[in-house]
Amino acid sequence: MGRKINYFKESSAFLENILWFNIRRFRFLSFWRVTFFIINLMLFLSTAMIMPMNLLYYIFIIVSLSNMLFIYSRINSRVSSYVLLRQLGASFVFIIFDNIIEILLIYSSCAAFYLLMFPLVRPNDISFMFILYQALVVVLFIPAASLIVLIRLGKQIREE
Amino acid sequence: MDIKLMNITKKFKSVDNIFIKSLDTINLDINYGNYLSFVGPSGSGKSTLLKILTSNMTPNSGDVFWGKYRLSNTSQKEIAYMRRTKFGIIFQDNQFLNELSVEDNILLPLAISSYPVGQKHKYYNTLMESLNITSLKKRHPFELSGGEKKKVSIARSLINSPEILVADEPTANLDEASAREVFNIFSNLNKLGLTIVIATHDERFGKYCKETYYLSEGKIVSFKGNS
């Protein structure tokens, strides 16, 4: 008990279980999923249309901010689930990875859909760079947002 | 695993900025295999005591020991690990993830513990059959009655083979027959060696437990042993 934590044994099915968790609840929360998908797809398509470089930087910033805003409100909306998971003993790492996988699955499907539409939307190298750049923003921002919410929540629960 | 509470005090700030004592200098030893209940009216501190016992709340003063580990000196990471491997918790309001089916809610503690949840756990079928909830597995929590929810909650708390079962008002919103059924389940589990700690406002169910502590205004005012 305690000091004899077998993290190796615990980590062996870690990702498998997070995927299981995400697949099982896929049918629900469809509003969030569809909104995130549509926002990104529309922004990807509009960037592919607007090619002048001076505009592109602004588009990058707008897309990043809107994604971050979406992710933060999404993470905040699931506070009651985090409370339950924490009470059942879930680690911060589990909840953060769960958030990353959930958003990344939707983002990846959106990027894949966008790539399939390339013949229609004048593709170029900047489009690929744009997808990678946004993926990076999404992946880096989720742990930060999750941690902020979880730490705030942890203090709130323990000091209530 | 034994649990020890030493001089536990918990205060809450009221809306008038006055501190109200919810628990006042509680000392208690919960030994392995025990079956005890905290009985008292609403506001007597039962639920607070259970939350402190499971480290879901921090006391203002005093110490909680899980085995030889003093929780105030133990990292959150270790506490979370022990909670998911040693404890089964039944919440007063059950608390399910509505987006998951009954079956997935029951398997949730395994997913958190990184047990390969894709493989059916060896206890899963036994649990479902013994609690008579096999037919509910594809339904969602919001489709269940109060008694069914409580049984699902019991199944979820037992799926990770805990050493200690902590139940907050396990008979709340249940009719007499369902409440008796729940306590019979607990008695059988205790016979198998599980430590059980219950908070209830209903004195009638104290007789099922080996030890009953009566709480009033945050203090243990009397004790009754039934063994």
Question: What percent of the residues of chain A sit in helical stretches (DSSP H or I)?
Answer: over 70%
List the total number of helices of chain B.
Answer: 6
Poorly predicted spans of chain A: none
Q: Total domains of chain B, how many? A: 1
Q: What is the string of SSEs of chain A from the N terminus onward?
A: HHHHHHH
Number of strands of chain B: 10
Principal-axes geometry of chain A comes out as elongated
Taking the alpha carbons of the first and last residues of chain B, their distance comes to 20 Å
Q: Provide the gyration radius of chain B in Å.
A: 17 Å
Helix % of chain B is: 25-40%
What is this entry, summarized?
The complex is a heterodimer of chains A (160) and B (227). Chain A has helices spanning 7-11, 14-24, 30-49, 53-77, 79-87, 92-116, 125-159. By secondary structure, chain A is mainly alpha-helical.
3D architecture notes:
- The complex is a heterodimer of chains A (160) and B (227).
- By secondary structure, chain A is mainly α.
- Chain A has one domain.
- Chain A is built from 7 helices and no strands.
- Chain A is elongated and about 50 Å long.
- The model of chain A has no long low-confidence stretch (mean pLDDT 79).
- The mean pLDDT of chain B is 88.
- In chain B, 29% of the residues lie in helices and 28% in strands.
- By secondary structure, chain B is an alpha/beta fold.
- Chain B has helices spanning 46-53, 76-86, 102-112, 124-130, 146-158, 176-191; strands at residues 3-13, 19-30, 35-39, 61-66, 69-70, 87-90, 164-168, 195-200, 211-216, 219-225.
- Chain B has 6 helices and 10 strands, in the order E-E-E-H-E-E-H-E-H-H-H-E-H-E-E-E.
- Chain B is globular and about 50 Å long.
- In chain B, the strands form 2 sheets. Chain B has a 6-stranded mixed beta sheet with strand order 6-7-8-3-9-10, with helices on both faces. Chain B has a 4-stranded antiparallel beta sheet with strand order 2-1-4-5.
- Chain B has a single domain, classed as P-loop containing nucleotide triphosphate hydrolases (Rossmann fold).
- In chain B, helix 3 (102-112) runs parallel beside helix 5 (146-158).
- In chain B, strand 9 and strand 10 form a beta hairpin.
- Chain A binds chain B through residues 1-3, 5, 9-14, 16-18, 20-21, 24-25, 27-29, 81, 84-91, 94, 154, 157-160, and chain B through 1, 12, 54, 56-58, 66-69, 74, 76-78, 80-87, 89, 91, 95-101, 104, 108-118.
